[in-house]
Amino acid sequence: MIIQKKGYTTGDTVALRLLTGEEVVGKVVANDDTSITITKPVSVRTVMSPDGAVHIAFAPFMVSVAENSDFRIALDKLLVSPLLARDEVRNRYIEATTGIIAGQTVQVPQG
Fold first, then answer.
1. What pLDDT sits at residue 111?
2. Is the residue at 3 inside a domain?
3. What distance in Å separates the CA atoms of residue 23 and residue 79, rounded to the nearest whole number?
4. CATH code assigned at 89
5. In a domain, 50, yes or no
């Protein structure tokens, strides 16, 4: 495993690469020197559209458990240290797990 200084904290959306090669995105709920705990994890897949463009898609990390489950993953089971997800991935993850669309403004009635 490549050792890297932690660049994330509780509440951040991180990307993980498991030793199996699977890429996982989730929200950090806890971490220590030996593990990271994430909630609402999703597997990242690449898909090709009919026009040949490659896009990312999310799939459930585990289909047999509640979507909002927490998963504690030992750091020695990762190919690289957890990294902050890039903005596009973070925004799509938030939208997929909460329904909130980043950057969308809502008009609040006055009165």
1. 63
2. no
3. 10
4. 2.30.30.100
5. yes
Please count the structural domains in the chain: 1
Long-range pairs for 83-92 at CB < 8 Å and ≥24 separation? 83/4, 83/7, 83/8, 83/14, 83/15, 84/7, 84/8, 84/12, 84/13, 84/14, 84/15, 85/13, 85/14, 85/15, 85/25, 86/15, 89/13, 89/15, 89/25, 89/44, 89/56, 90/13, 92/56, 92/58
Per the structure, the complete domain to which residue 42 belongs is given by 13-98
Span 9-36, mean pLDDT?
Answer: 96
pTM comes to 0.84
Cα dihedral across residues 58, 62, 64, 65: positive or negative:
negative
Count of other CB atoms within 10 angstroms of residue 63? 7
Higher pLDDT, 95 or 5: 95
Is pLDDT of 3 > 80?
A: no
Handedness of CA 39, 75, 86, 61 (dihedral sign): negative
By residue count, the chain amounts to 111
Answer whether residue 86 is part of any domain.
Answer: yes
